Amino acid sequence: MFFVQKAAGGDLNLWIDGQPYVNASFRSGKRPSRLIVNGEAMHVNYQNGLLDVKYKK
C-alpha cells in the first residue's frame, strides 16, 4: 500500500492505492475541514491528533 497526501487550505487530499479495503490512521497536526480520499469526500474522524480513514474501493 502507498499513499500521497496533499494539504491545501483546510482540505486534506489522500490518494491511497494497493489494497481494496483501507482501515488506517494518519497523524495530523490539526483537524482538516474536509477530507478527500481518492477523489471522494469522506467524513472527518479526528481524535487526539489522529485521522482515521476507512475506505473501500
Describe it.
With 57 residues, this protein is mostly beta strands. Helix content is 0%, strand content 67%. The protein contains no helices and 7 strands. The protein has strands spanning 2-8, 11-17, 21-27, 34-37, 40-42, 45-47, 50-56. Strands 1-2-4-5 form a 4-stranded mixed sheet, with no helix packed on it. β6 (45-47) and β7 (50-56) form a beta hairpin. The radius of gyration is 10 Å and the shape is globular. The two termini are 13 Å apart.
In N-to-C order, the SSE pattern is: EEEEEEE
**What percentage of the residues does DSSP assign to strands (E)?**
over 45%
**Main sheet, how many strands, which sense, barrel?**
4 strands, mixed
The whole-number mean of residue pLDDT values reads 93
Oligomer state equals single chain
Structural class: mainly beta
Shape: globular
Q: What Rg do the Cα atoms give? A: 10 Å
Count of helical stretches: 0
Numbering strands along the chain, what is their spatial order in the largest sheet?
1-2-4-5
Q: Level of helix content?
A: under 10%
Give the distance, in angstroms, between the N- and C-terminal Cα atoms.
Answer: 13 Å
Uncertain stretches: none
Quantity of strands, as a count = 7
What would the keywords be for this entry?
57 residues, mainly beta, four-stranded mixed β-sheet, 7 strands, 0% helix, 67% strand
